[in-house]
Amino acid sequence: MQNRLFAGLGGVSLLFTFSFFFPWLGVIPLVSFVTLLGLIAIDLLLLYRIQNGIFARRHSPDRLSNGDDNDFGIHTENFYPFSIHVGIIDEIPFQFQQRNIWFDVKLKPREIKVISYQLRPVKRGEYDFGRILLYVRSPIGLISRRYQFDDSEILPVYPSFLQMRRYELMAISNRLSETGIKKLRRLGHSMEFEHIRTYVSGDDQRSVNWKATARKGDLMINSYTDEKSQHVYCIVDKSRSMKMPFEGLSLLDYAINASLVLSNIALIKEDKAGLITISEKIGAIVPADRRPAQLNKILEVLYREKTRYLEINMELLYSTVRTTAKQRSLLLFFTNFESLSAMERQLPFLKRIAKFHLLFVIFFENTELQKLKEEPARNIEEIYIQTIAAKFAHEKKQIVKELARHGIQTILSTPQQLTVNTINKYLELKARQSF
């Protein structure tokens, strides 16, 4: 039933009502009613005389990327010999918590149209997509005919492979600096000469090959190979401290996305990438390797990981690192500390790990506390809240200093900048040959 039909019925009702008070209206109300019934009959005939007047199909990727905008489309095709208006509902999974996936489309006879939209998942797992519902109206527009297409499918949501591909392309084309990743100055040229190539923005100007530049008429530089086959392990804490959400994603998901991107960059740089996940018990271990299937192995492991509700077992982590990483490796430990006392409980084991490996402890700034600090206080209660927020923010900086005092390097990052800051640190160490 459409608004036009309600308006028509309301108008006819008013005419019949007024005819009691104004006899001069005569048969006008009856004629109007018969005309309305005739239009309804014509509308029904137009819409239902063709069994399958429209077709729809959902275009979706094979898998979704967590935390990213994923592209979807609804393919529609009009088989009616006249123009139609179509209202489209796509039954998207409940995890998105959206009830506004409604599209109004006008289709000419035999016209094909694709409606594009995007969905951003914030949890890994399986997402169940349902039917596509279409409500078709003819040019008369009094009633609508419902079509439904059972286009049900279950799509897995993996860690952010779209982000991984974006950084991969930039790493290959030497354009990482365009996304905020620093181009780091190399300390000398102790590496092996590889080839001469064209200069691109961000290259070290000291590497310019002036003889080749004179011959080619374009700026050319010497390219050197980095030291290869170093071991890089991402250690992901999946205990309750990583459950905290920021912009829909949990800290664990931010750490997982950063781990996937970093593992891919490490493999591109011909290092060996590995993975360890842990809470009160060991979750998964992927020994460092650089075989072609290594990235898919890491991706599948990260897809299944979930936060747990107990504290991390640091003694178990220490023994696992000692048995898994047989040679000196770069360990990037993604965790979170909300207080100095929480860090001090883990400090003895971090110090022991740092004796054998280059350890980086990566934890998170609380951006919500930062917002509280910046808001103007209007009463005593808000002053008290701001004071507590400032105290917690200061403790984060104290944690950095305390870890540095014991020779443990740190990365304190906002969740949104975690991937960029982690890659920056890896490229810096790679440039300095520091591990």
From TrEMBL:
InterPro entries: DUF58, vWFA_dom_sf. This is Uncharacterized conserved protein, DUF58 family, contains vWF domain. PANTHER family: BLL2464 PROTEIN, SLR2013 PROTEIN. Keywords: Membrane, Transmembrane, Transmembrane helix. The chain crosses the membrane at residues 5-24, 30-48. Residues 196-339 form the DUF58 domain. SUPFAM superfamilies: vWA-like. It holds the Pfam family DUF58.
